[in-house]
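Hi U.,

Before I forget, here's the chain from the pilot set. I'm dumping it here mostly so it's searchable later in email.
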Amino acid sequence: MNKTIKDYDLTGKKVLIRCDFNVPIINGEIIDETRIDASLKTIRYAIDRQAKVILMSHLGRIKEEGDKQDNSLLSISIKLSEKLDQKVLFIPQTRGLKLETAIKKMKNGEIILMENTRFEDLNNEAESKNDLELSKYWANLADIYINDAFGSIHRAHASTYGVPSLLPNGIGFLIEKELKALSYFANPERPFIIILGGAKIKDKIGIIDKLLPKADLILIGGGMSYTFLKAKGYEIGTSLLDKESLPYVKRLIKEYNDKIVLPIDLNVTVEFSNTTINRIVSIENIDPKEMGMDIGPNTIEQFKQILNTAKSVFWNGPLGVYEFSKYEIGTKKILEVIANINAHVVLGGGDIVAAANKFDYKDKVTHACTGGGATLEYLEGKKLPGIEIIEKIES
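Structure:
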């Protein structure tokens, strides 16, 4: 069992908390606050125990100097100040005298947020490549390290692996909650139904191979369903096709045909747009010029009947282009179904959690994961660097 924030006396200690504030920001406005909200319990726990709290997080990808402007954590500090009802001092540095001086002046219960850790990637990718010098620098700022960035635990970066290798460490409440929710699937109550959507089959091969043998059924929609339909010989028009994964899909169909449930009708149009004319067609009647954008009403009803029998559900990836009002129906309707069944339901991070948040279903399921990649790798059984480095409690 990993150590947690509860295993330390935090009073007067400088506690470096690695959060995941990698949230969508458009024109300086935070569009989805899910990950910020998820961090609050751990932060409040630390300040309530009179720690000197230093927060760090990445935001976006930083490849060149121009990327800094749209990926500063300044707006995060403002939002955190509102939610915590106390000032979160933002330091626009990842290292330097201003940061060091601010930390030295901290009083118990105060909070500092340093600048985006990935700004250090302009320094020979120091953050992403786990630079030892950078790790030592950040570690010297604090007494205790707590990782609560579930969405980054599958990465061996300086802020998730290098720093905790140099400090007493533990996990926060979010990671503790995430791991508990996902460990359920080691032995899920049955019927166990998997829902998979989204675009890339390649990203989901590991999870399919790991969970499909123990699942009762797998419902497939979204962009990845068209490759499955193509593998079964259907015309898919200009729908998304993952040619590279076709051999894998054909093998899956041959081996698990009785477990795989594909759409029987689709909402289609002639271009990737919310304004062109759309129509509902059976999978036998897709025109070569059309592309699938969402599952159709008969598929929704079929999925609904199956899910009403479920005791365990894992869902990764939306069932259509939910960002467009014409093609949000499938994802929205199935979210409504799983919000009203008596089952252990986990949404596997990424776009499906964003969709659940958009349609107000995120808090109506058992758990909504805050990290898609980390969720999939955990369920695949891969070792996660950000967890492996955390100290264990001796039994």
